[in-house]
Amino acid sequence: VTQECHVQNAAREYAKLYAAEAEMLDGFGEVPEIIPIFLIHRPANNIPYATVEEELVGEFVKYSVRDGKEVNFLRRDSEAGQKCCTFQHWVYEKTSGNLLVTDLQGVGMKLTDVGIATLAKGYKGFKGNCSFSFIEQFRALHQCNEYCEMLGLKSLRAAHQKPRKATASKSKTLPSSSAAKKMVPKKAREHRDLISSEH
C-alpha cells in the first residue's frame, strides 16, 4: 500500500513537470493529470492502512501498453491516449531512458493506478514497481504522434535502429570485433544500448 502511494505520487510529480512544459505550447491543449493518492491509518480497523483517492466517474480506459503483450487501440484514437503516450516518451527522454511511467489509465485526462519501471538499481534513489523490460518494450513499440513532435522529442525508432545497422556493418568487415563483442557481459551491453538510445 505504501509503495502504491510512493509510485503514483512520484509519477504525479513527473506529470506536473510535463504539464508545465506542454501548456506553454500553442495548440497542445489539456494535459493528462495523475490524481494524488493518500495513505490513511485506521488503528481501530482490522486493516489498519488504506489508500484514498478521488473517485473517477465515466468510461475507464487503459491508455498505455504495460508489458508489450497488450495493445489498447483506444489509446491511439483518443487525444488523451496520444498525450499519455507522449508523456511516457517525455519521461523516458528526460530520464535518459532510465525511468518510464507505465499503466496509464483513467477517465479522460484524469489518471490513476499507474506504475513506474526503472533500471534494476533504480533512478536517483527511486525504485519502480515494474520490470526494467517494460522500458525496453516501450522503446521498441512506441510510435511518435503530433504531441511528441510539438515537444520536440526524438524518435525512439530511429535511435534504436542506428546502432543495429552500425553493428551489422562492423561484424562483416571485422570478424574479430564481433567475436570480442560476444565476451562483453550482458550488463555492459545493456548499459551501452541505453547510452546509444539517447542519441
TrEMBL record:
Q: Where in the cell is it found?
A: Basolateral cell membrane
Q: Where is the composition biased (Basic and acidic residues)?
A: 190-199
The reply on keyword Repeat is: yes
Its EC number(s): 2.7.11.1
Q: Where is the Alpha-type protein kinase domain?
A: 1-156
Entries under InterPro entries matching the protein? a-kinase_dom (IPR004166), Kinase-like_dom_sf (IPR011009)
Region entry Disordered: which residue ranges? 161-199
Q: Which GO terms describe its molecular function?
A: ATP binding; protein serine/threonine kinase activity
**Keyword Isomerase carried by entry:** no
**Chief location of this protein within or outside the cell:** membrane
GO annotations of cellular component type:
basolateral plasma membrane
Q: Which reaction does it catalyse?
A: L-seryl-[protein] + ATP = O-phospho-L-seryl-[protein] + ADP + H(+); L-threonyl-[protein] + ATP = O-phospho-L-threonyl-[protein] + ADP + H(+)
Print the keywords alphabetically.
Cell membrane, Disulfide bond, Immunoglobulin domain, Kinase, Membrane, Repeat, Serine/threonine-protein kinase, Transferase
The entry's family comment says: Belongs to the protein kinase superfamily. Alpha-type protein kinase family. ALPK subfamily.
| The protein's name in its UniProt record | Alpha-protein kinase 2
Q: Which organism is it from?
A: Oxyruncus cristatus (sharpbill)
Q: Lineage in the entry?
A: Eukaryota, Metazoa, Chordata, Craniata, Vertebrata
Q: Which gene encodes it?
A: Alpk2
